[in-house]
């Protein structure tokens, strides 16, 4: 027969006070409850851990003697459920859908942290755990304290909370009746505790047969409550070896070993009782005198004398605060065998900290009962160890999960360091919070670090959220993405040369910004880099542009279907403008019109570059959401390359002023020869300081940080004005990372986090790479992990790209989407390649793929 307790009869909480929202126990203990928003794990420096520790100490010191602090961290296993019904997935293509399927049922740990400040009605040191209300048959409520005591308690609690809030490091939210009790919309605090769940609204009974079972789950409790269980020294932070290197130190809080780093169901309780230091000192003085009487008979008395003398010296001379401390870890699972595995892992974690793990076999139920929110005064003196406040709070868990949501409307799909999928918004939300001042960014990733793959993933999600992207590429890394997203791919081929039309305007009345951009383009075509220009020349070219559009508009009104392009502009300048120039009293000394026409003649009609500026096809680049300028075939051409870069500048500037309501992003991908040109460098400097005013963003992607520092203008434009930085694996620079720190103005904290990239990767996850995201002083590492189908869409590995192209040609009529999906399933042009559950092809022991089957694809 099962032995069970009915909560309705034994529940130790009397009520929630309507005025103060305090929890009142049946023992008349008063408790204020808070939910804690702690810093994110793996994003805190050694110095910040010291600051956090100091906050805990200062806040606790305002509490009077006899008060108790109970910090309770709930860690609950969950699995990711994709939002397949969301508008984003309904309107997105197969990549987003396949990524969500990839992460479906991915396990992760949910964390909630609560903090309770209790004023016990009776001194807890006069109670023992055997006096728990769980073991009493009848409870007699005690008379509540008078109003002055309530006012004093509320005042103390407000002081305690203010120290946390004013720090800016930890936030406390006071819990009211709606959060403490189930309100029909969200599960209450007590329902969560008695269901060992964050969503179950039921108050389950407790079973005491075959150990403690709560909500049908087998539990084990490890307690740390005796001073002899403590190691000789306790620090508030420790070195996390798996993320550290020979030249970097990655810190983690000591308490995280029993918090976020225990990757399974558990509750970590941390308890403090503010002790009377003077009373304890007087007691120790009496004990020392007694030890002196027996010192001659036993050496143990001499040791005890020295220990107690040292303790009293700390209290008196250094004004150390004495507390009684208790810690326990409760692990649980519905499967007893799994719960037993958790028990072993929890014991190992406690041992690794230097403590002696002690399984609570006879008092597990009373520990569970006393840790009910608001009932901590029942912990009992036998479960409390005497120590100093600094050491006691060093064991607190001070971190939580990354706070990135599963979905946000402007997010990039990444994972946290535990593998939980999240959508990270680097461009909008940080701007709203004032973390960054503009949306410019840079991406630094050495060869082989996954830079191009990461950029494909980023650009895909940016486009999916409606952002306009103009991308300058060398190397063809985005061709398949362009096809998938319906973009315009502009490149040079002998039978299909690159072409633009900066003169085209649908209404023939472009705004002044567009005219100014066109005038700058003409000046760049006419003058060599570094060649001086006069004010008269600038004014004259601007006037030619103005007169040209006026003449074109009048011609249209007269019925002449004149097409705006360079040819018509050149002919207007040659045939019509000389008379206007003369009428305006222009002179050859101020502006050499013949020289202007002569220099621009190669771009007219059937001359050498007549195709370049007369396009009738690329006339809508300003309106297109996605345009790629692929410069690989012309990167060394002395004429086409600089003119193409000028056209890119011109088109992007026109887009900035003509397209409203969306973010316009210009990404320069490894086009460093363009950056060597003075005009383009000046353009980047202008962009970096101006585009934010027009809802624009400048992004630069490079392999080497050194690429950015050769030109002072570029360095000033890109590095100093890019508050958003994505850094991939930098282990090649580990020995000289000080140079990288100086170039990018990194703090030591950021450097340690960046050097942890790709360290301690989970071998049980599908293949992924890390990246560090820097937003001002903020820095976190994320994983770039996608579905096998998305991988096939984004990969730039030549062998894989060729395999997909061959499959598309052989079986899918060059249809990309079907070919990528087939490749992800293991299909190849010559047969079928088996894949494992993660979609990774299975190889023979010799590393070669298995022989194709039947010469045809199979699924």
TrEMBL record:
<dbReference type="InterPro" id="IPR027417">
    <property type="entry name" value="P-loop_NTPase"/>
</dbReference>
<dbReference type="InterPro" id="IPR043964">
    <property type="entry name" value="P-loop_TraG"/>
</dbReference>
<dbReference type="InterPro" id="IPR024451">
    <property type="entry name" value="TraG_N_Bacteroidetes"/>
</dbReference>
<protein>
    <submittedName>
        <fullName>TraG family conjugative transposon ATPase</fullName>
    </submittedName>
</protein>
<dbReference type="InterPro" id="IPR022509">
    <property type="entry name" value="Conjugation_ATPase_TraG"/>
</dbReference>
<dbReference type="InterPro" id="IPR053155">
    <property type="entry name" value="F-pilin_assembly_TraC"/>
</dbReference>
<dbReference type="Pfam" id="PF19044">
    <property type="entry name" value="P-loop_TraG"/>
</dbReference>
<dbReference type="Pfam" id="PF12991">
    <property type="entry name" value="DUF3875"/>
</dbReference>
<feature type="domain" description="TraG N-terminal Bacteroidetes">
    <location>
        <begin position="2"/>
        <end position="53"/>
    </location>
</feature>
<feature type="domain" description="TraG P-loop">
    <location>
        <begin position="411"/>
        <end position="825"/>
    </location>
</feature>
<feature type="region of interest" description="Disordered">
    <location>
        <begin position="840"/>
        <end position="859"/>
    </location>
</feature>
